[in-house]
Specification:
There is one protein chain. This protein is mainly alpha-helical and 407 residues long. It is 67% helix and 6% strand. The protein contains 9 helices and 5 strands, in the order E-E-E-E-E-H-H-H-H-H-H-H-H-H. The strands form 2 sheets. The protein has a 3-stranded antiparallel beta sheet with strand order 4-3-5, with helices on one face. The protein has a two-stranded antiparallel ribbon with strand order 1-2. The longest helix has 63 residues. It is elongated and about 105 Å long. The protein starts with 37 loop residues before the first strand and ends with a helix.
């Protein structure tokens, strides 16, 4: 029988030949026919099968490059490959070395999780900052236009009696006012989402505080200017014209609320179907959609528009929004979906839905008086509370799951 010598790279730093001892260097029992000698591939000591196991795996990750460096791991411990790699080799390791390697492996996993969380926070800050910047840009563009419209009316009119009352002028004013109100409300919601982030370092906390302060100052300055412009409009405009402008704003507001609620509900239903979890969020949103639709129908009748034609236009608009991911309300991270699966998608959907519902509610309140569309506002508030409760339940179940895994 041909003897094969052990390659040097598989020998520990203090490798001890098997003939150097007749006793296991861990349990100190004598070797014999039923107790064979083995070498630990890490420390090199001579040990028995009871005091060792082939639990050390050397491997090249399947998703890595062909010339990538090999990895090591203790099997059945967090951090080892979930599926056996195509290119791997199992090595014997003694109990003492295995315990030390497990500690190192778990420490590496913990460090990787911390680094990933920090990266996720910075990534989240970046995403929110980009959204806020885009909204700020819209405010910077829309506010001067609204100011120009009002100043133009002041110059050309000279007196409220001569203020142009053509419907096209009122629609232009109403649209400018509604758009600006939407942008400022969206800014509030987006800035509030910064508060949801949980910084883990002093640098992250300092960055968040600086962003919140700067964006709050921007909002305060522009909101003051917007309110001042509205007061100037009210001061020079006859009551019947103001009422007509407000009626246009109200109609646009309830229509926007209906479209947003319908689209969000469809997105929730599609995600629940795709990732196989209960469509609870979609059911909550369907209830809201029904209430909003009732009040929109009344508004459609008051404006003498065709309901069926309007429905077809809404369906076509929502369809186009769903076809392009950039116009969707809920866009889960592909990386986090791959890493955490259904639980992440479900929690992300709940969180995003609560934010969007809050935004719809605030926009409706900002544009319309308290008595207008009261049922829709109450329905949105009820949905908001349900979504917050679902978020808290999801967070509690995640905490319990983490604790049970740790124990």
């Amino acid at each position: 029988m041909k003897n094969f010598s052990l390659p040097d790279w598989q020998k520990g730093t203090f490798y001890l030949p098997k003939g150097a001892t007749d006793f296991c260097q861990l349990c100190e029992q004598k070797f014999g026919l039923l107790k064979q000698k083995h070498n630990c591939r890490v420390c090199g000591r001579v040990i028995c099968a009871v005091c060792s196991a082939e639990n050390l795996i050397l491997y090249v990750p399947d998703d890595g490059e062909q010339d990538s460096d090999p990895h090591w791991a203790i099997i059945k411990v967090k951090g080892c490959p979930e599926v056996e790699p195509n290119l791997c080799l199992y090595q014997r390791v003694c109990g003492s070395c295995q315990a030390q390697l497990e500690d190192i492996q778990l420490e590496q996993v913990t460090q990787a999780v911390v680094e990933e969380e920090q990266q996720d926070i910075f990534s989240s800050i970046k995403q929110v900052y980009e959204k806020i910047s885009a909204t700020q840009s819209k405010v910077d563009t829309q506010l001067p236009k609204y100011q120009e419209l009002i100043e133009g009316l002041e110059i050309s009119a000279g007196s409220p009696k001569y203020l142009p009352q053509a419907r096209s002028n009122m629609q232009m004013l109403a649209k400018a006012q509604a758009d600006l109100s939407d942008h400022l409300t969206r800014l509030v919601v987006e800035v509030s989402s910064l508060k949801r982030l949980q910084p883990s370092t002093a640098a992250q906390l300092k960055l968040l505080k600086g962003l919140l302060r700067a964006k709050y100052e921007f909002y305060q300055e522009n909101m003051f200017q917007f309110r001042d412009l509205r007061r100037r409009l009210e001061a020079m405009t006859p009551t019947e014209v103001l009422n007509e402008i407000q009626a246009i704003v109200d109609h646009q507001a309830i229509n926007s609320a209906y479209i947003s609620t319908k689209q969000l509900g469809l997105e929730a239903l599609l995600l629940a179907d795709k990732h196989q979890f209960p469509p609870r969020i979609a059911q909550v949103l369907a209830t809201v959609e029904g209430v909003v639709m009732e009040e929109l129908q009344i508004s459609i009748q008051e404006h003498r528009e065709d309901w069926e034609q309007h429905q077809l236009q809404v369906q076509e608009f929502v369809k186009r929004c769903l076809q392009g991911s950039s116009h969707r309300f809920v866009r889960p991270s592909r990386r986090l979906t791959k890493a955490h699966g259904t639980k992440y998608v479900s929690q992300f959907l709940t969180e995003r839905s609560e934010i969007v519902v809050t935004q719809i509610y605030l926009q409706l309140c900002a544009k319309c008086v308290d008595k207008k569309f009261r049922k829709t506002k109450e329905s949105l508030q009820a949905a908001q509370l349900q979504l917050v409760e679902n978020q808290e339940k999801g967070q509690r179940s995640t905490t319990v799951g983490t604790e049970s895994t740790t124990s």
